[in-house]
Amino acid sequence: MERFGTSTRQDIDDKRRNIHANKTQKSNTLSATLFREYLTSKDHEADFESFTTQRVDEALSHFYLDVRKIDGSMYKTSSLESIRHGLNRHLKAPPNNKVFDIIKDAAFRYANMSFDAARAELKQAGKGNVQHYPIIQESDREKSDYLIKSSMIQDYFCRRGAENMHTMTKSTFALKTDPDTGMRYIEKILDELTKNHRGNDKETTSGVMPEATGSMYCPVDSFIKYTDKLHPDCDRLWQRPRDCFVDDDNEIWYYNAPVGEKKLKTFMSDLSLSCKLSQKYTNHSSEQQEL
Q: pTM (2 decimals)?
């Protein structure tokens, strides 16, 4: 076997594209399509990828202020920001490979001034609102012991929705003890590729989950009990729960089957209904609880 590989230009471009998650690539394409449709509607050339920086700056300075939804209504500020970032990524990605940055570079000063003006206009029109997710109430936490044990990883490690949770295994986290204080804690020991940290060497979204001595909701005790009840023949951290079981020391609570990605995305919503909680929660509610 040869020591070094041989990468063609196509190989390099393909691997650079894969730095971004599929949803991000789709967002880039949608942003580019929208900008192209706008240019066409104004009787301009649509191949903006071949424009000079000055021409891109000029076109964007109008686009940010003029862009609308299909029904003619305004976008929210978050949507406009998403479109802007999507265009920036599209221009930088293969096969365009632009070295400029439409957000940071001084060459796009007029476009960015228009963007700031458009964002201010949208906020004045009530399009700058942020969606807030309900925080899990203490009374609802008391209703479900399973809620405590199964949502704690999201609570402390603040994942975006259920991103990559379906790939977690029993080895993703480890129980450790602080040598100075003797305090136990759970630490994430396996790095992974996340939506917002695709090319970084280290993931920066995770921390540690410390014990709460004397609390019935101690996350470390809950984590230990949860993992003890998992099926021994399945390596996944999230497994399909059995239809019924008793809280016995030797009882296994889960089938030898992992929970799929789609099911994990609706985990909190499904749990809210099955446990008859006071309101319908989402996976983001767990994040809000800790934030």
A: 0.50
